[in-house]
Design brief:
mainly alpha, 13 helices, 52% helix, 3% strand, DNA-binding
DNA sequence: AACTTACACAACCGCCGCGAT
DNA sequence: AATCGCGGCGGTTGTGTAAGT
C-alpha cells in the first residue's frame, strides 16, 4: 500500500466542500459498494484525502442524517448520556441514529456545556469559573466524595435517561430509540432550522445552478434530473422545507442505504451497551449488577434493566432546565 | 455603514486500535 | 512479534454569519 508521496499529499484540496465535489462523492458512493476509503478520492475524481471524503460522507452527505435544531428529547438524551459515558460522542451518537457524533459534539460544546455550567453555578451559588468539566471526573474532589458524586451522577443519569426514554409515551420497555420519525420540536423556536437550512438551501441552490449548466440537465423542467445512477436531484426545492425532509427532497436515493445505516446503528447500540457495562465494571459500586443469580443475562438486557429499573430516583437540579 | 464580537457549524489534525502481512 | 495502513474517534481550529456597538 504505502502513503501518498508528500508532494501528492500537499496537492490535496482542503477547506469547505463544493457542490461539485459533493455530487462526485455522492455519485460514487451510490454506484460503488465501499471497500476502502483510500480508493474513493481517485475513483471519484476528487482531490481530497480519503479521510476528508469519509468525514464529508459520514457527517453530511450520508442519507438519513437529521439536520436542524435538537429537540428537548434529544437534548436530555445527550446530557445524560454524556454524564454516563463521558465525551464518547460516537457512543452517544449511536443512541441518536439520525445525528452524527460531530453534530452532537458541536451541540454539546456550543449549547449544553454552557447550560450545564450555568445550572451548576446556580445550584452551587458560585460565579462562573470557566471550569468546563461536568462529569464525575473532577480530580479536585476527595476520593470518598468522588465516589458519592459518581453514584449520584449515575443515579441522575439513570433517572433522566429514563425520563427521556419515556417522553411522548414511548412504549418502551425495550430501547425503542429508532423511530424514524423525528419527534416534534418542543417550541416554535426549536422548530426553526435556519442554521442548517440555510446552508443546505445554499448547497441545493448551487446544485441547481450546477445542474443547469450540466449538459444532462438541458431541457429538463422543474422535475427530477437524473444525474448519476441511483442518484436523483430534485430541483423543485423549497426554502420552507425542514430538516432531513428538506435534504431528502434535494437528494433522494433509490438504494436502501439508510436501512443498512439503521441496522449498523442497532449493532452500535449493542456494542455501546457492552462498552457501558465494561465501563461500569471499573466502578466498585456497580459491579454487583452483573450478577443476576446464576443466570446469564445478555448485555443489552442488563443495560436496559440498569437504565430503566429503580424508578424512584431523585434528579437533583436537573428539572427546570427545560 | 463600518467595525467588532459571539456564535454555530464544518472540517482538519493527531492519536489509537485493529487487522493484515 | 513487529510493522504498516486504514478507519474511527475526540479535540481543536477555521470560516461564515448574525448580533451588537
Amino acid at each position: 500500500m504505502g502513503r501518498p508521496p508528500r508532494g501528492e499529499q500537499s496537492r490535496m484540496k482542503k477547506g469547505p466542500w463544493t457542490p461539485e465535489e459533493d455530487i462526485a462523492l455522492v455519485s460514487y458512493m451510490q454506484q460503488h459498494s465501499l471497500s476502502n476509503w483510500r480508493s474513493v478520492p481517485a475513483n471519484a475524481g476528487l482531490l481530497r484525502c480519503s479521510k476528508s471524503c469519509r468525514l464529508r460522507w459520514t457527517n453530511y452527505l450520508r442519507p438519513g442524517i437529521k439536520r436542524g435544531n435538537f429537540t428537548v428529547h434529544e437534548e436530555k438524551m445527550i446530557i445524560h448520556l454524556q454524564a454516563l459515558l463521558g465525551n464518547r460522542w460516537a457512543a452517544i451518537a449511536s443512541y441518536l441514529p439520525q445525528r452524527t457524533d460531530n453534530d452532537i459534539k458541536n451541540y454539546w460544546n456550543t449549547h449544553l456545556k454552557k447550560k450545564m455550567r450555568k445550572l451548576r453555578n446556580s445550584r452551587d451559588g458560585q460565579a462562573d469559573d470557566g471550569d468546563d468539566s461536568t462529569d464525575a471526573s473532577q480530580s479536585t474532589v476527595p476520593r470518598g466524595q468522588w465516589e458519592r458524586r459518581l453514584q449520584t451522577d449515575v443515579q441522575t443519569a439513570k433517572q433522566a435517561l429514563h425520563d427521556a426514554l419515556s417522553v411522548h409515551s414511548n412504549p418502551i420497555k425495550g430501547l425503542n430509540l429508532f423511530d424514524s420519525n423525528p419527534l416534534p420540536p418542543a417550541s416554535p423556536q426549536a422548530s426553526t432550522s435556519e442554521g442548517y437550512a440555510s446552508s443546505i438551501a445554499n448547497i441545493s441552490r448551487l446544485l441547481q445552478g450546477w445542474m443547469k449548466g450540466h449538459p444532462n440537465s438541458a431541457k429538463n423542467g422543474p422535475t427530477t434530473t437524473p444525474c448519476p445512477k441511483n442518484f436523483v436531484m430534485n430541483s423543485s426545492y423549497s426554502s420552507e422545507d425542514h430538516d432531513s425532509n428538506m435534504f431528502r427532497r434535494s437528494f433522494s436515493f433509490s438504494s436502501d442505504a439508510s436501512l443498512s445505516t439503521e441496522l449498523q446503528n442497532r449493532n452500535n447500540l449493542a456494542h455501546t451497551c457492552q462498552t457501558s457495562l465494561s465501563f461500569r465494571a471499573g466502578s466498585s459500586s456497580a459491579q454487583t449488577s452483573y450478577m443476576h443469580g446464576k443466570e446469564e443475562v445478555p448485555a443489552i438486557r442488563l443495560f436496559e434493566k440498569w437504565l430503566l429499573d429503580d424508578g424512584s430516583m431523585a434528579t437533583p437540579g436537573l428539572d427546570g432546565i427545560w
